[in-house]
Fold this protein.
Amino acid sequence: LDQENPIVRHQALKSLQQIAPDYPVGSLSNVKQKPMLASKSARRRRKTPLDEYQLMPFIEQKLQTTQDITARIRYAGRLGRLRPNHTDAIDVLLYYLRTSQNKTHLKHASDHLQDMLSSDALALDSITKMLVQVQAIYLNPTCASQYQTAYKVLWHGSRIFPFNQFHHFWQSVVKRD
């Protein structure tokens, strides 16, 4: 039997006694039983509160103080899911969509913006303002990845409006430039 793991040894001896009660296996009392640990999820402490009203200031504070780009994009996306009209979240995601050349950062920022556009809680004027800024990135990209991710956001945004309305929006913005 496995001498290294006393729990396995204890269970094996107990099973052996049930199968063959007359077979001498020794005493179970000399086997040290290790206390069973709680499940991993029970041991883990929740680091953030679940209530949206408690969670919002925590994430906003993290968004303002964190310097890591990946974390900032993640926090902005989380704020965007909780409150799609959150201007700081939109600004951070648009900033990284405009300035980053890292494909992963661009993809995550784009995905979060698309999720925010899909929300029914986002007002049409906020959608229009967001799409105007994304269109500027699309028309003047600094790398191919920016062009592709801006295109995806614009494509997603175009599905919100009827074709004529989106076409008018597109032409009015292009004429201003």
Notes: The radius of gyration is 28 Å. The longest helix spans residues 103-118. The mean pLDDT is 82.
